[in-house]
Amino acid sequence: MTLWMIGNMAAHSVPSTLKRLLFAVKCSPLQSRCCVVQREAQYSTISSPNEKTFDKILIANRGEIACRVIKTCKKMGIQTVAVHSDVDSSAVHVKMADEAVCVGSAPTSKSYLNMDAIMDAIRVTGAQAVHPGYGFLSENKEFAKRLAAEGVAFIGPDTHAIQAMGDKIESKLIAKAAKVNTIPGFDGVVKTAEEAVKIAQQIGYPVMIKASAGGGGKGMRIAWNDEETREGFRFSSQEAASSFGDDRLLIEKYIDNPRHIEIQVLADKHGNALWLNERECSIQRRNQKVVEEAPSTFLDPVTRRAMGEQAVQLAKAVHYSSAGTVEFLVDSKKNFYFLEMNTRLQVEHPITECITGLDLVEQMIRVAKGYQLQHTQEDIPINGWAIECRVYAEDPYKSFGLPSIGRLSQYQEPLNLDKVRVDSGIQEGSDISIYYDPMISKLITYGATRAEALGRMEDALDNYVIRGVTHNIPLLREIITHPRFVSGHISTNFLPEVYPDGFKGHQLEADAKRELLASAAVLYIAAELRSAKSRFIQIIKQQCEHCVEIDGAKVEVWGALNLASPLLPLTVNGTHRMLQCQTSHCSPYVRVLSKLAAELNSYMPEKASEDTSSILRSPMPGTVVAVSVKPGDTVAEGQEICVIEAMKMQNSLTAVKQAKVKSVHCKPGETVGEGDLLVELE
Fold first, then answer.
1. Is residue 26 a contact partner of residue 44, using CB atoms and an 8 Å limit?
2. How far apart are CA 442 and CA 388, in angstroms?
3. 165-169, 424-428, 570-574, 611-615 — most confident range
């Protein structure tokens, strides 16, 4: 049961004392609903069984957000329909739904963006409404129009608001008219690379080039000079066309070293609108969020209210009705500037649910049916602190996270811990493919204070078991324990500033190294004892305690050694540690050898490192979009050789030295794996 699903309990056998408690919760004000039952009631209001909404909802999405919507629908007694591609036929969201319809093959253009197939699924199943989740068709005005034409409710804003806010050029003009602070820039469409250079020179570097119809960090580039502007124009327009079917671009002043803080809004069809406080989203890589929290450590009540009121002004200006998010850039002096409005449910919505007690999916469904908001602005609390980490199938040691693919051979979410929520759409055995976003889950922790929420997040990351794909948990753990993050001294440049040479993993101090080695040695001995047949090993220990001597220093390791479990809670020199036993292909890792094996290992030849200056290998699985060279060409250092697209992001691969091209092993349209040879240089 997820942490916010107390409404489901009414359908089961409930003790009379708990029934009285549930009734008290239902009749209590919103502020008091967040902590009535420790694990279940802190993230959601309780829907009224007398409030009729829809009989059946189709979810036009996949993965964790489809699962998230289905959970609330079940709570509200609504039947659900899942759509899926052929490769997603056994996905979790398909199994959770009451019905499922295949809408095409794996590529998104042939399935989750296939409007004709999804409309057919709506007709066949008799769905009365569609929840689009985020991404895919969630901000597509044509899809909303087609639904309206057939009398099917779109669980989101109307087409006017989607059009107005989905176009960054138009949205900026509307924001100005609504007296919302905006970033200086060019308010028209940039048509050519040379025009982009001219405009950038007029605005003054640095500038941000971004897709007019974009979002999610796609189609965005920062340019510091003319050449970067030309390159940024090319890549942004290509990504925009690929992701949104719209290659129009705009240019505005880049606010250097800002915070990214957004306001959640909620509005109905009767002119009522609320702001549900802020979310701090400054920890990003490649303009995509990695860690979010609510509230922000930076905002004071005056700034929070000013941002909230401007967000509501904008929502009312376009007659907005549903949940939406107004994003701002905030400088060091707390000046804030409108960035964009996302006319959909945001990825990071759970942390707002944690601190307000509102189930945002439920509220979207109510609004789509025509009900008025249940609350006023004075009802909206900031109750505690919530943090979200986006857990991705990515290699954090490559550009803070390049996509990884594979099958989850072992998967265990840390739901045994208190006040931990995991929004996921995968399970053990699920495949992470090149076709879709590499997100594994959203890991959310909640506490009365920020320190409490951070402590729970650290424990949750340590207890999260993911095998079969490379993941970014090492980076997430480093971020949330870094002194700068703990102190709240962050900006959108946090990662490149803290790790200027890239993320290299956690650097162990001498004591920590000894503790790790001692723990590994104890596990090795335990495994030897379990598998020993004719050998005799004498170990002196008291109960579950082991004493290990390393380099003259003694390390005491205490704990029950359950070698069948992927998680091993140990106490090392009096400090609680959570160890995960991984196979040796994971890096970094500790190898424990017998004395004889260690002696023989010294004679093993070391594998010679590859000369990466003369070859170019794909750093990630993806599709070759362009090859810019041919055999015999001479390339300069830094010159583009080819472009790889992975999860709708285009990555330019360049030469690290001046050389002649010896051979080319790829061509546009080909699918390549991580480490595949692309180009050889002489």
1. no
2. 6
3. 424-428
Average pLDDT, the chain: 87
Contact call for residues 184 and 203 (beta carbons, < 8 A): yes
* Residue 220: per-residue pLDDT: 84
**In sequence order, what are the beta bridge partners of 138?**
none
Instruction: Show Cβ contacts of residue 270 under 8 Å, excluding neighbours closer than 6 positions.
Output: 372
- Whether the bond between 157 and the residue before it is cis, its omega within 30 degrees of 0, is no
pLDDT in tens, 215-271: 666 778 899 999 999 999 998 888 777 666 778 888 988 888 899 999 999 999 999
Query: What are the φ/ψ torsions at residue 550 (nearest 5 degrees)?
Result: -130, 120
CA 245/CA 331 separation, integer angstroms: 33
| Sign of the torsion formed by the C-alpha atoms of 314, 285, 441 and 39 | negative
Alpha-carbon distance of 207 to 190, in angstroms, equals 13
Residues 6+ apart with CB under 8 A from 59: 66, 69, 70, 80, 81, 82, 83, 93, 97, 130, 131, 132, 133
pLDDT value at position 216?
61
CA distance 74 to 98: 10
Cα dihedral 68, 349, 45, 412 sign: positive
How many CA atoms lie within 13 Å of 111's alpha carbon, on the beta-carbon side?
Answer: 19
CA separation for the pair 489, 20 (Å, rounded): 45
As given in the structure block, the two tokens for residue 297 are 């450590």
Distance between CA atoms of 571 and 581, rounded to whole angstroms?
Answer: 16
Residue pLDDT, tens place only, 634-660: 999 889 999 998 766 788 899 989 999
C-alpha separations of 640 from 16, 186, 632 in Å: 70, 29, 15
How far is the C-alpha of 260 from the C-alpha of 282, rounded, in Å? 5
Alpha carbon distance 245, 140 (integer Å): 10
**Amino acid symbol at 90:** S
Calculate the alpha carbon distances from 673 to 366, 617, 621, 623, 653 in Å: 45, 9, 4, 9, 15
d(CA 161, CA 176): 16
Question: What's the pLDDT score for residue 10?
Answer: 32
- What's this model's pTM, rounded to 2 decimal places? 0.81
Q: Read out DSSP for 111-164? A: TTT-HHHHHHHHHHHT-SEEE--SSTTTT-HHHHHHHHHTTPEESS--HHHHHH
Catalytic residues: 340
Give the burial class of 357: count Cβ atoms within 10 A of its Cβ; 0-12 exposed, 13-18 middle, 19 or more buried. Answer: buried
Contact 679, 629 (CB under 8 A): yes
Model pLDDT, residue 543: 61
